[in-house]
Write a structure and sequence with these properties.
six-stranded mixed sheet; alpha/beta; 2 domains; UDP N-Acetylglucosamine Acyltransferase, domain 1
């Protein structure tokens, strides 16, 4: 069983590291693989009741790889630690199948009490470099943790967590985001290349400004059209073209033809 798990740990490297060239190279030069192999042995010794020997083996692996994994930690199949230096996995941590950790990750505890005090990672979880996942929390299947994030609460399956403290990154509203990008291009501004799902308050404020500019632009187009219908004259100076400003306000509506948008004054003829 242990040797089967080790074979899977080596093979999974080729799926997650494009730099891997052959099995010999992985076995001889990948500290993350060395640490996982060492843990498989230490965990088996721990379960046999040879706890001092298990701890001694894990300590040797730490000296060699810079990765500290407590022998009692439970790790599933096809586990990969990329680069690895500075990774710490606590005693009661549980890791599912097909998980990936990068360097500097800590699966740590927030209490000195006995019992479950370290995180549980379900299947297909990825934890970015420098992230800290602390306490007896659970990261659901397919969860992602951004680099240097600090996670202290449960994460639902498929969600992505970033920041300190960790926050869920909301899904992007593609229609609203496209409109904001169009307005940003019109005024010659790129809001840091970030979508509205970010938790950065500055970017959130800028996105609200872009929404306001779009709303004002639409109202001005309607006003110009009404003035022309009443016989008035409107300055016909062309405006900068918006690549995607033909998108109507509201969800589920198709893009407005450029000819109609030009009549409303949103884009030039």
């Amino acid at each position: 069983m242990v040797f089967q798990r080790i074979r899977e740990d080596v093979r999974c490297v080729f799926d997650r590291d494009p730099a891997a060239r052959n099995v010999f190279e992985v076995l001889t030069t990948y500290p993350g693989v060395h640490a996982v192999i060492g843990h498989r042995v230490s965990h088996a010794l721990w379960n046999m009741g040879l706890k001092w020997l298990a701890r001694m083996n894990s300590t040797l692996c730490r000296w060699l790889t810079g990765i500290e994994i407590h022998p009692a930690a439970t790790i599933g199949r096809r586990f990969f630690i990329d680069h690895g230096m500075g990774v710490v996995i606590g005693e009661t941590a549980e890791i599912g199948d097909d998980c990936t950790l990068y360097h500097g990750v800590t699966l740590g505890g927030t209490s000195w009490n006995k019992g479950k005090r370290h995180p549980t990672l379900m299947n297909n979880v990825v934890v970015g470099a420098g992230a800290k996942v602390l306490g007896p929390i659970t990261l659901g299947d397919g969860a992602r943790v951004g680099s240097n994030a600090v996670v202290i609460k449960d994460v639902a399956p498929g969600n992505t967590v970033v920041g300190v403290p960790g926050r869920i990154v909301n899904d992007v509203d593609s229609e609203k985001d496209a409109r904001r990008q169009a307005v940003a291009k019109m005024i010659g501004f790129d809001a840091y290349g970030m979508h509205q799902g970010t938790t950065d308050p500055v970017v959130q404020a800028i996105n609200h400004m872009l929404d306001h500019i779009h709303a004002m632009d639409s109202k001005m187009g309607d006003m110009c059209k009404a003035i022309e219908q009443l016989g008035g004259e409107v300055d016909g100076a062309p405006l900068p073209v918006l690549n995607s400003c033909e998108i109507k306000e509201g969800s589920g509506q198709e893009a407005e033809p450029r000819e109609e948008a030009a009549k409303r004054g949103i884009i030039p003829d």
